[in-house]
Each structure stands twice: as structure tokens, then as C-alpha cells.
Amino acid sequence: MATISDIARQANVSRTLVSRVLNNKPGVSPENRKKILEIIEENSYVPNGLAKSLVLQRTNTIGVVMDDLCNDFFFRLINGLQDAAEAQDYNILFCSGRKDMATRLKYVDYLTGGCVDGIIAYGSRFDDEELFRYVAEKSANSVLIESDLSGCDIDKILLDNFHGAYTATEHLIRQGRKNIIHVTCDMNYDVGLERLNGFVQAMHDYRMPLGPDSILYADHFENTAYQQMQKRLSQSTHPDACFAGADKPAYGVLRAAMEAGLSVPGDLAVIGFDDDVSDSKDILFPPLSTMRQPLYEMGQAGVALLIDKISHPGRDPITQTFEAELVLRETCR
Questions:
Q1: Rounded mean pLDDT of the chain?
Q2: pLDDT at 70
Q3: SS3 for 273?
Q4: 3-state secondary structure of 320
Q5: Residue 242 pLDDT > 60, yes or no?
Q6: Which are the contacts of 88, defined by CB distance < 8 A and separation ≥ 6?
Q7: What confidence tens digit (pLDDT) does each residue in 178-233 have?
Q8: What distance in Å separates the CA atoms of residue 128 and residue 123, rounded to the nearest whole number?
Q9: Residue 324: how many CB atoms within 10 A of its CB?
Q10: Beta partners for 142?
Q11: Which residues pair with 143 in a beta bridge?
Q12: What is the CB-side half-sphere exposure of residue 283 using CA atoms within 13 A?
């Protein structure tokens, strides 16, 4: 296999000149550039990536640490990260922690051992703080997506979950709904609390009735919300609208309502959150109104922010906040 020295010898030029051609740098005459490129092609020369990274102090690779690469909800985020990285000639290395903190910390150690130029970490669980602080400590070039980590100088990409929940609740109120409830998503996540707070604030601002039965605590699974909604519908007074903190619990609400003989959206209007909607659900339920997360755009912004940080290591931390979009479908017209 040819080396850069072989190319230089055959072209009768210095290794430095060959390196300039390989890296598309100026300072090479058109004749020499043409000659060097022809010899490179004749020898099928491929630059040694490790050697190049040692010289340039760059790997042109970004590391991403997240819990679950197989969850189709994250595909838009993953596509945004990958498209943005490839557009800037960066490679991207995904690491799945599978909800195990020791595994995620191990991946951070691996990535910061010279494999990448920077790290993007995604997560919003309360106990993810250990991971995020470790990322910030190990890599000066890092970006958090979905975590508003306090007391730490680090770039962040956030979604305004509070405002998204407020918007959804406000829409139900303006439709004329009088008895609105909230079914939470998992309260072990920052987003669960933020969306609950957005609901409560909208209800207070519009002077809507808010009592112990106005909030049903669920998680990210359909069945828990289904069971909670069954209990709520066993009471004499039924809600006429529901804002669910995520789409999966929203489907649990729909299942309980339809089994109870309620029409949707006539008797009960429902709005979810995330736009985590599958085609199979549309067969069983009316298409779900929801607050869509701009995950693709957030992924792109995360890569752009990280590459900017790599290029400007001394700059101040930046936080970019995205808004969720109200998408109206059949469950709330």
C-alpha cells in the first residue's frame, strides 16, 4: 500500500506539498496539483485517518450518547444529527446507553479518549444529571439536548415544554371545553414536570376549575393512562377535554373513552405531545392531535452548535430553545 512518502517520491515533490493537496490547501501550483492527484489515483492511495488526526489535532468525528437508538420516536432526531454532520464533512458515532448509567459513562470515557472532537448527549431524566456533568467535565466541546443543566457552562438545545403544554391547554379552553384534565407523562423526566406546570398555568390564567381530579398521574406507557382514565370515567362527572403529556398516554385516554362509549372529539377532545404517532394507531383510534417536537431541527442545531464550539473554543455557552407546533387532527377539531 502506498504511503504519502511514496507519492512525494514519485511526484518528485516534498511530503508537505502532497499533504497540501490531500487537505485541499493553497500554495500548490496547478501543474503540481494535477501531477500529484494523478499519482494518488494511480496508486489508489487512501490517507491514514489516524495519522491525519494526530497532525491536525482533529478527528472530524462527533460522538452522540443517548439511551435508545432503536426507539422510532428518536429517528427524526438521529436523522437531523446525521444529516447535519455529513453536510459539514463530519463523521458521527452513536452510542446507546440502554438506560444504564455505567454504560453511558463508559462511552463518554471512550469517546473523550481521542475518538471524537466533541460530544452531544441527549436525555431529560432527573437522574441524567450525573451523565451531563460528567460530559461537561470530560469534554470542553459538548452540547446537551433536552436538558437544562444548571450551574454548568455548556451549550444546550432545549424544547419549551412549558409553552407547548400551555398552548395545547389554551386551545382546548378556547374551544369552549369546561372540564379539562391533564394526564401526565413520566414524572421522572424534566419534561413531565414542565408540561404539567404549563397545563396548570394555563388553567389558572383562564380561571378554569382545577381540582384533585384534574390531574391523572401516568407515565410514558399507554396502559397506565388507560387504567387512570377508566377510574376517572367511573365518577359521575366526566371531563370533556384532556391534554396528555405524551402521545402514548393520550392513546390510553382514547381507549378508555371509547370503551366507555364516549365520542371523540364530541364528548372528549384529546391533545397529546411529541407527535409520536404510528400508522397502526390510526387504524384503532381517530388521528391524534398533538404538539409536535421539531426533533430533526433540534438535531441539526445540536451539530451546528458543537462544530461552532470546536471552531471557537473560547466563546461563551449558547442555549437555543425550540417551540413545539400544535398539529390538529381528528381528536380535537
A1: 90
A2: 81
A3: strand
A4: strand
A5: yes
A6: 303, 307
A7: 999 999 999 988 999 999 999 999 999 999 999 989 999 999 899 999 999 999 99
A8: 7
A9: 22
A10: 119
A11: 120, 155
A12: 3
Angle, to 10 degrees, between the axis of helix 30-42 and the axis of helix 4-11?
Answer: 130
Is the pTM for the entire model greater than 0.85? no
Instruction: Retrieve residue 54's grid coordinates.
Output: 494526530
> Band of the pLDDT at 298, cuts 50, 70, 90?
very high
**CA–CA dist 161, 167 (Å, integer):** 10
pLDDT at 58: 67
Give 7's contacts (C-beta < 8 A, 6+ positions apart). 18, 36, 39, 40, 43, 45
Distance CA 160, CA 324 (A): 7
Residue 193: CB atoms within 10 Å: 17
- Output the nine-digit C-alpha cell for 67: 439511551
Q: Give Rg (Cα) of the chain.
A: 26
Give residue for cell 469534554.
139
Contacts of 11 (CB under 8 A, 6+ apart): 17, 18, 32, 35, 36, 39
Report whether the peptide linkage leading into residue 286 is cis, meaning its omega lies within 30 degrees of zero: no
Q: In the chain, what are the domains? A: 4-56 (1.10.260.40), 61-160+295-324 (3.40.50.2300), 161-292 (3.40.50.2300)
How many residues in the chain? Answer: 333
Sheet containing 91-96: give its strands across: 91-96, 61-66, 118-122, 142-145, 155-159, 319-322
Q: What is the mean predicted confidence (pLDDT) over 302-324?
A: 95
Question: Would you state the pLDDT for residue 86?
Answer: 94
